[in-house]
Specification:
Length: 406
C-alpha cells in the first residue's frame, strides 16, 4: 500500500472527523495526537542498528565537504575538532565529507583522502577522536569523475564514462577504457579497506551530485556502447560492481552505505525511475542503507536550496524517497534535503516513509542541535540556508557558519 505523507494539521482534521466534532471526541483527538507525536519523537531518539552498528538516534550528519584536509589529503586537527563537536552534540551518526579514492578524482583543494596507506595514521586519529566522545563515524568515499578539479588533482585531465562536458563545467574529460574502469572499481575497494583499517564504523559510496558513480548512471553523461553504457541495467553496472568490490574487501558484517541521487535536475539525465531501479538492485546485492539526495554540484541551488523558511520547504527529497521505499522496502532509508524541524521529521517517521534524517547545514550552525532536541528543546534549526558556510571553506577557512550567533 502506498504511504501518504501527512501534515500535523491533516492528522488533526482526520481525528476531528472521526470524533464527530463532539467535545469528548475533541478531547480524545487531542490526546491521540499528543500520543502519536510523543511516540514518533521517542522513535527519533531510540537506538537502532545498521548491520550491527548501534546508533543512539535517527539523526545523521550528512556528508559535507569540510575543506579541512591538508594539501596532501591528510586529516588535520581542525577536521578532528569539527567531528568532536558533532559527537559531543549528540548526532547518532556522522558521515565524513567526501574522501577521494584517487588523486585524479579530487573535487577541490583541502579535501581529505583515502587513496594511500600513509594517510591511515590521520584517519585513525579522526575515528578514535569520535569514538572517545561516544560517537559513530562513517567515511564517505568518492571520485569526482568529470567534475574533478584539475589544479587539486595534480594537473591531470579529468576522467569520466564518456568524453562529454559535465553541465556547468568547461573542461572536457577523457573517456575511461574498460580496463581503467576495473582499476577504478578496485580503487573504491582499496579506499574502503583503508577506512575500515583506520577504525571507521562504516563506509558510504557517494553515488550522487554528479560525481563519477552518478555519471555512469546518467544517460546524459554516459554515452558508452559497451557493457557499462546504454540501457539502465548497463548504466547501473559501475555502481553495483563498485559496491560488490567494496563488500568483498570489507566483509559481510561491516556497514556499507550508498548516497543515491533521485534525479540530477538536468533534462535527459538521471530520473527517479533510474534511481529506484538502482536502489532495488543495491538492495538485492545487500546494501545496508541508502541515503536519498538529488541535484548536481553543477547547479548548487539544486543541492543546497535556499529559503528553507518553514516546514513546507523542508524534506524536498521526500517524494522520490517514497518511490525508492516502494522499490526497496527492506533497506533502511536516510533522507537529506532541507530538514530543519522535529515536527516535520516526526510526521514523516509516523508515516513510515524513511528511517533516518540526514542534516547538513543545520549542524554547521548548531552542532549541538541533536542534543538540544533530545533534551526537550523543540525549536527548529536557526540555519537560514544562506550557504555562506561553503564559501568560507572555498576560501580555505574550513566550513563554518558565518552568521552572527554561531
Amino acid at each position: 500500500m502506498k504511504r501518504k505523507q501527512i501534515t500535523r494539521r491533516e492528522f488533526l482534521r482526520t481525528s476531528l472527523s472521526l470524533a464527530g466534532g463532539a467535545a469528548a471526541g475533541s478531547w480524545m483527538m487531542s490526546r491521540s495526537l499528543a500520543q502519536a507525536e510523543q511516540q514518533s519523537l521517542a522513535r527519533i531518539f531510540e537506538p537502532t542498528m545498521v548491520n550491527g552498528l548501534m546508533l543512539k538516534n535517527r539523526l545523521v550528519r550528512s556528508a559535507t565537504w569540510e575543506g579541512m584536509g591538508d594539501p596532501e589529503g591528510r586529516v588535520t586537527e581542525q577536521l578532528i575538532d569539527l567531528h568532536r563537536r558533532l559527537a559531543d552534540g549528540g548526532v547518532g551518526l556522522a558521515i565524513t565529507g567526501y574522501m577521494y579514492i584517487r588523486s585524479d578524482g579530487r573535487l577541490a583543494p583541502f579535501s581529505a583522502g583515502a587513496d594511500r596507506d600513509d594517510l591511515l595514521e590521520g584517519l585513525g586519529r579522526l575515528a578514535d577522536a569520535v569514538h572517545a566522545r561516544g560517537g559513530k563515524i562513517v567515511a564517505q568515499i568518492c571520485h569526482a569523475g568529470g567534475q574533478s578539479n584539475r589544479e587539486a588533482s595534480g594537473g591531470v585531465q579529468a576522467v569520466a564514462p564518456s568524453a562529454i562536458l559535465s553541465p556547468g563545467y568547461t573542461e572536457l574529460p577523457r573517456e575511461l577504457s574498460e580496463g581503467e574502469i576495473e582499476e577504478m572499481i578496485s580503487a573504491f575497494a582499496a579506499a574502503a579497506g583503508r577506512v575500515k583499517a583506520a577504525g571507521f564504523d562504516g563506509v558510504q559510496l557517494h553515488g550522487a551530485h554528479g560525481y563519477l558513480i552518478s555519471q555512469f548512471l546518467s544517460p546524459l553523461r554516459n554515452q558508452r556502447t559497451d557493457r557499462y553504457g546504454g540501457g539502465l541495467e548497463n548504466r547501473s553496472r559501475f555502481a553495483l560492481n563498485a559496491y560488490r568490490a567494496v563488500r568483498a574487501e570489507v566483509g559481510p558484517s561491516y556497514p556499507v552505505l550508498f548516497k543515491l541521487n533521485a534525479h540530477d535536475g538536468f533534462e535527459g539525465s538521471t530520473t527517479e525511475r533510474d534511481a529506484a531501479y538502482l536502489a532495488s538492485a543495491l538492495a538485492q546485492a545487500g546494501i545496508d542503507a541508502i541515503e536519498v539526495s538529488s541535484g548536481s554540484r553543477a547547479d548548487r541551488n539544486s543541492v543546497l536550496r535556499r529559503e528553507i523558511l518553514s516546514w513546507r520547504d523542508e524534506a524536498y527529497n521526500l517524494p522520490p524517497a517514497k518511490r525508492i521505499r516502494h522499490e526497496a522496502p527492506e533497506v533502511p532509508l536516510m533522507l537529506v534535503g532541507g530538514l530543519r524541524s522535529l515536527e516535520r521529521m516526526w510526521g514523516i517517521l509516523h508515516c513510515g516513509d524513511v528511517d533516518y534524517f540526514s542534516l547538513s547545514r543545520p549542524l554547521i550552525r548548531q552542532p549541538d542541535l541533536p542534543g538540544r532536541w533530545a533534551g526537550g528543546d523543540r525549536a527548529r534549526s536557526s540555519c537560514i540556508s544562506c550557504n555562506g558556510c561553503f564559501m568560507a571553506a572555498v576560501k580555505g577557512e574550513g566550513i563554518h557558519c558565518v552568521q552572527p550567533g554561531a
